[in-house]
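Why show two proteins at once? Because comparison is the fastest way to build intuition. When a single record is shown, students tend to memorize it. When two are placed side by side, the eye starts asking what differs. So, the first record is below.
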Amino acid sequence: MTEERVSQPDVDSHGKVLDALEKDLEGNPIPEPNGTGYASPSTSAKTTPTRGQSKTPSPTPSTSDLAVSQRRTSVSSLEDEVDFIDDMSDDKNIVRGKTVVTVSDLTRKSRSRLSKKDRQYRWSMITICIFYGLPVAQLVLTYQRVLRSTGNEDLCYYNFACANPLGFLSDFNHVFSNIGYLMLGFLFILLVRRRQMQYIKSRNDEPAAEGKEKGIPPQFELFYAMGLALIMEGLMSGSYHVCPSYSNFQFDTSFMYLIGGLGMLKIYQARHPDIMPNAYLFYAFFALIILVTVLGVVYISISVWIGFSIILVVFTFGLSAQIYYLGRWSLDCGAPKRIYDRIRTDGLCSWPKHVDRFVLLTLVLLVNWTIAIMGPIWQPIDFASYILATFVCNYGMYVLFYMVMKLRSGERISRLTVLFILLACATWAGSLYMFYFSPINWQETPSQSRSINQPCSLLKFYDKHDIWHMMSACSLFFSFMVMLTLDDDLMTVFRKDIVVF
């Protein structure tokens, strides 16, 4: 059906004609439209009259009258077939542009569709673990064999004052101390699985009616991906310590980048399930980050620092706009024009619609842009650690942002979550203190690095860096548990009453 519009001039110009034709000379109404249009004059004239009724045929409407009536019929039919109010409420720009957006507004996609998209994160992570981990293990074991066959101990930067060999490993204790990542990673996966089974059981026992769902939508695949990343961090850190060196340090940090990214993404997913990014796009972005890291490690120069700063500025600006506008803003070639149109329409200093969200995101942008500016100015030698510090800083700021907005929205934080927060803060403080006193320095020559070697400080077997491994594994585990339990207070709250920020 072709949609036609009735303009007000058309109606006004033919108003008198329509009123005059309401009845003919004998009081008969205008012929009604049939399936193909109005009744033809010949058909109207051939109609057999009843006894006593005049045989005079009804007058035939003019062409202009037929056009106006046909337009009215077309618009009336269109209004019957299309519910404009429902279409407006389904429009994401209208729904997400409300002053107060709730979780129910962002959970309109089917559960099966969301689950299928969510599972991509876990299976993609498994693929990454296999194809990234095996070549790394092969490389560092080759280094170990070369060291043992040639006796060149300057090839790897060990803490010779506390290097306990075992088998073919020259520094077994620094490899073995990473066991905490593996154990706590498996434990976290088991806890996530237990919570998932509890949710499935409760959903089957008491299915919620449509529109009556409670709590944050439970999506567990990102938690599984985080557990796998924690396990892989232990394996990659152990691989790095088989032969610690500047070129191998990137293996120790790659999955730390992913842990930070997955953590931020999981917090975002809690209240934005319908606007989650594609898993392939997410991992492709981190592939770009790792590529930049490799360039910074191998070909460190001012151009690499400038490239990193540009990526950081553009990404943080786009991500902040995505969070502020709830997925209604995209970073593409048309973004500059949209920004210009918005400034021209609302003004450069217009009052933000969501003040709390705007202030906190502005602070996040200022911190990130400061990091982007200071990188090319300072140009520290340890490029990989600088990027890792950037991710850790952003992860911490986003967790803090979520908690502040949660409290500002009238929600509370459960006692169990508070306990995990305190444990995470305590272990992070201790682990960073131990990390600061590193017993090696591969930024210096091997002889200079030996001069800062430190004796074992725990059980005459582990040094401070081993303690860093143990405490940082606990720190990450407690941080994961904070995210797993952060919204437990909303389990009995309807989704239509949970605010999105």
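Second record. Ask yourself what differs from the first in the token line.
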Amino acid sequence: MKSYPLNKMASTIHKLQSILPTSLHPTAITYLFNLTVKLAGTAGIRIESLSQTNSVLSLPNKKRIQNHIGGLHACSMALAAESATGILVGMK
């Protein structure tokens, strides 16, 4: 399979992962992502793991993103899904 040079987003994450200990990767990547995507920060999205082919995000069931029956609002779930795919597309 052909290898391509890393784009700006992928190279930033790669540098971050090469400098920080593995235990701090999710926290640092989440901070950078939420700083860039303001709504993701407001919703409290957390990036649990990230690679070139896989992203795992979590979304806490907090009052500010709940629907009228106490579950996650559909828009917050769509934000999490879009963020997971958007990160992967952004790294290509």
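One difference worth noting in the second protein: The first strand starts at residue 46 and ends at 50.
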